[in-house]
Amino acid sequence: MKKNASRNNIADKGRILPEDPNLPKFLCQNCRQSLCVVGVESYADKFLASGMLGSSAIGNASVVGSTRMDNSFVVLPKQRSQVHGASSRPPGGSLNPEATGTRKSIDESFVVLPPPAASVYKYEPVADGGGSNLSSSQDGPSSPLQPQNPGFHTTITVLNRAFEIAATQTQVEQPLCLECMRILSDKLDKEVEDVSRDIKAYEACLQHLEGESNNVLSEAEFLKEKLKIEEEERKLEAAIAETEKQCAEVNAELKELELKSSRFKELEERYWLEFNNYQYQLIQYQEERDAILAKIEVSQAHLDLLKRTNVLNDTFPIWHDGEFGTINNFRLGRLSKVQVEWDEINAAWGQACLLLHTMAQYFRPKFAYRIKILPMGSYPRIVDTSNNTYELFGPVNVFWSTRYDKAMTLFLTCLKDFAEFAHSKDKENNIPPEKYFKLPYKIDNDKVENYSITQSFNKPDNWTKALKYMLCNLKWALYWFVGNTNFQPLSAAVSPHSEDYLVAMKMI
Predict the structure, then answer these.
(1) 362 phi-psi bin (left φ>0, alpha ψ -120 to 50, beta other)
(2) I want to staple 117 with a disulfide (CB 3.0 to 4.6 A). Which of 19, 113, 353, 507 is the partner?
(3) Rounded to whole angstroms, how far apart are CA atoms 164 and 27?
(4) Terminal C-alpha separation, the chain
C-alpha cells in the first residue's frame, strides 16, 4: 500500500508491478489519503498455492463457514475444482495421495486451522444470483464493478481479510499508508522496548526472590515471634490510645482557642468600629476647631482693624484747603477773594460743635462742662455760665455780629477748658512732663496765636486764619481723646514727634 501519486509503477522487492485498475480505491484510516494496491494477484497466488485459501473459489456450490473459535475448520466439497492451477487442499492436510490409496473415499473432509488462518475464510454464503460468479460462461456481459476475472473476488477477499487481521492484531484501523505505517511501526517498536525492559526487570526480581533462602521458623520460634508482635501491637495500641487522648485534648483546646479567637475578633471589630467613630468625631471636631480658629483669626484681624480705626477721626476729618481749615470738607472762614457761602460755614461750625460736645460729654462729671454746646446741625448754639444762649450760625455782617462773635469766643473758651483738663489728666496718669498735653496754638480769650476769632471790625483773612488754628487745636484735642479712651489704646497717644502731630502741623 502507498499514497496515490503521479507514478504508475510501484516497486515491490525489486519488481515493477503495474497498478490494477479493476481494484477499488482504499483510504488510509489515519490521514484519509487515497491508496492504490498493486501486486495482489501474486500474493493471492502464494496464498492459494500454500493452501491457505482452501476452496474459496468453488462457485455457487461451495459452502464455507468460519467462526472466531479456538479451532476453526473448512468443509471441503466432494468434487475439487482448480482455480489458477492451485489445489484447494490445505497444506499439510490429512488428504494426501498415499493415505487415500489405502482408504475409502471420504464424502466430506475438514482441516483444522489456527484462529488467524481461519479468520481468512470468514465469508458469507454465496446465494444464487447474489454473489460474484467466477465462471465466465455463466455470466452475462461484464460490468466495471464486476470484471470478467475469476480471481477478482479472491483478491478483494485477501485484501479485506488481511486488513481485518492487521486491525485485530495491531488494534489500529487498516489500511494505512506507508508514512502512517512507519509512524505506527515506530510506536510499536517503542512499546516492544518498554515491554522488554519490564520483562527484564521482572526476571531480575524473580531471580532475586529465588536466590533468597527460605528460613522456616519452628513452632517455638513462631510463638515467640507472635508474642513479640502481640506485645508490640499492645504498645502501639496504647500509644494510639494516648495519642487519641492527646488529640482529643488538643481538639478541645483548639475549640476553646477558636472560641477565644472569635471573641477577640468581635472585640477587634468593635474596637475598630469605635476607633473609626472616634476618628470621625475627631476629624469633625478638628474641622470645627479649624473653622472656629479661622473665624477667630478673621475676627481678631477685624478687631485689630477696628482698634486701629479712629472713629471720631473718620467721622470728623479735619484738614485744610489752601488758606481754609476744613472739617468734613466744609470750609470754615471767608477771604476777600473767596466768598464762602454761609450754609457751608454753618455746616462746618455744626461739625466742630458736635465733636467738642462729644469729647466733653465723655469725660463728665470729671470735666467741668461749664460752657455747654448745643449741636443742632447747621444751627448750633452756645450756652454760657449764666444760661445765656448765643447763635453760632450766620449770615452776619462785619458791623453787626456781636452775638455771633460771643458764640465763637465761648466755643474757643470751652476748647481751652478741655485742653486744661487733658493736661491735668496726663499728670494724674504719671506721664512724663515733656509729654503732657498742650495745644499747638495758644488760646487767649478770643485770640488764637494772636489772631482774633471775632468777625466785627476784623479782616476776613485774619478771621479765616484764626479759624484754621482753632480747627488745628481741635484736631489735636481729638488725637489726645482717642489715645486716652476706649476708642484707641493708650499706646496710640499723640506725641509731639508722632505722625499725627506732623499732619496737624501741616494745617498751619
Answers:
(1) alpha
(2) 113
(3) 14
(4) 139
